[in-house]
C-alpha cells in the first residue's frame, strides 16, 4: 500500500528543499518534488508575498461566457459533488484549461476561508502563478493529483488539501480541471477517487456531445461495461479514427497523437460492428474485446471546442449595436438592476431582449456573477418547476438519485433572466412569488429552504397588463417584477434603420469582402417589416454576404418576400405593425405549404413564435 507522507516528513522535506537547498527524496512523493523544482526554476520564491489578482467584473463574465459549454457539460457531476462538499466542509472547483477558476461552490464556511487564499472564481491556479497545487500540477502532469497541506509550494496554502483531475476532450486537448478542496486538518479519504469518477463521466458526455451523431464504436474487455462511462469510445470519419476517450486508448494502445492517421483496420482484424448487438472483436495482437458500433452520418470534421470561439462573438453573431434611445434604456436598466429593482423587458420576438439582458448584466455590479437564462415557454409545465426550484433525490419518477440544486440557486450572487415570463404557468407563478418574498428556495420533495440572492430581469413579448386583466397572470407577481418596464422597439420602428443595416453589414464582414448594398436594395431593406426583427435582419444580411453574386447588392439579389414588400407600408399605430408582421408570417407559411419549421426558418423566428402569433 502506498505510504502517505506525514506532516513531520513534509516539514522535514521543506526544510531540506527550501532552507538547505537539497533534494529530500523519500520524504515527499517524486511528483511533489518535481513540481517544487519546476516552481523554483520558474523563479517563484516562498519568501515573497504571493500577489494574485483574480479576474473580476466583465473579464470574469467573458471568461465564464467562453467556457459556458464546459460548465454546462459538467453540471450534473458538479451538482452531485456539491452536495457531498457541503456536508464535508469542502468545495468543488471547476477551472479553465489553464487553471483559472470558473466556479467554486460548496460549504459556505470553507468558501470564505478559501477565498482568502484566492481559491475563488477568476483566480489563476496554474503552477507558474500559485506554485505546487493540485489544479496547476494536474495541468502540468496531465493526470489526477492530490496535494495536501505543506506539499503546497507557498506556506499560506498549507491550510488546503486538494484533489484535482484534468478533463480531456476526445482529441486529447485539455478542456478543464475538476477539483475538490477542503481543510488540510480533515482527512478526505475519497476525494481523489470522487473527482476521477466525476471526470470519467464528464469525458464520456463530452465525447458523445462532440461525436455522438457520427460513427462511434463502444468497446470493453467486459461486455457488461459497454454502455457505461467506463467503456472505451472511438469516433470515425469514414474508417479514420478521429476521436477517442482515455479508456479506448488504454484498451487499444492508441495514442491521441495518432488520431486522424490511424484507421479501423490498423487496430482490428474483424469488421466494424454496425448493429445494436455486442460482438466480439479481435485486435491485431490477437486479444478479444467486446464492442457495439453505430454507423451514422459522418461527424463534423472539426470537433466543437468546449470554449466558445474567442472573446468576441465570432462571425455568426454580430456584436450588438445600440442606438441612442437603446443606450439610454440600457443606462436606466443598469441603474435599476444595481438598486435591485426588478423590471421587465418588453418587445417582439428577435428585438434583442436576451442580448439586452446580457449587456445589462455585463455592465451591472453583478457582472462577475452568473447570468442564468431560463425560457419559461420552452419547458413543459411539469419540468420547469424541477428545473427552477431543484429537487431532493427521488422527488419524482426520473429524478436523479442525488437530486438537483435548480436554476434559482445557480443564479445566487448573479442575475436570473426569466425570458417569456408571460408564459409561466399560474401555479408556478405562486411558487415563484414566494421565492421573491422570502428570498429562499425550497426544493421539490421537501428539504430546508436555501437562501438565495439574485437580481431579476424578466422579458416577454406579451402585454402583461392585458394578461393580468384576463386572469392569466397574477397581479401581485406583475407588480413585483414589472414595477418598471423597458420597451424594445421592433426594427421597423427604429429611426435609423439604414445606419443599423450598415453596421450589421460591416460586423458580418460584408464590407471587408468588398461587397456593398446598392441604394435601391437599401431602401427595400429599410422598408421591410422584419417580423423576426434583429434576428431575421442579421440572418438575411449574413446570407447576402455569403451568396452575393455581385459586388453591389441590387434589389434583384434580395429574397423574394422582401422584394414584394417594395415601398414602406403606411403604418400609423402599433396595431398596424402587428398586422403587417402577422401577414408576413401568414404569407411565409403559405409559401412553405404550411410547413411551420420552414416558414419559421425563412422568417428568422422560432416555431413557437409562429404558432403563438398565428393561433386563432
Ligand atoms: N442590439 C442588437 N444588435 C445586433 N444584433 C442584435 C441585437 N439584438 C439582437 N440581435 C440579434 O438578434 C438575435 C436575437 O436576439 P435575442 O435572442 O436577444 O432576441 P429576443 O427578443 O430575446 O428574441 P425571442 O423573444 O425570440 O427570444 C441575436 O442572436 C442577435 O444576432
UniProtKB/TrEMBL annotation:
The keyword Oxidoreductase does not apply. GO terms for molecular function: ATP binding; sequence-specific DNA binding. Residues 327-546 form the Sigma-54 factor interaction domain. InterPro entries: AAA+_ATPase, AAA_lid_NorR, GAF, GAF-like_dom_sf, Homeodomain-like_sf, HTH_Fis, P-loop_NTPase, Sigma_54_int. The keyword NAD does not apply. Keywords: ATP-binding, DNA-binding, Nucleotide-binding, Transcription, Transcription regulation. One of its GO terms (biological process) is regulation of DNA-templated transcription. SMART domains: AAA. Pfam families: AAA_lid_14, GAF, HTH_8, Sigma54_activat. It comes from the Bacteria. This is GAF modulated sigma54 specific transcriptional regulator, Fis family. It comes from Dokdonella koreensis DS-123.
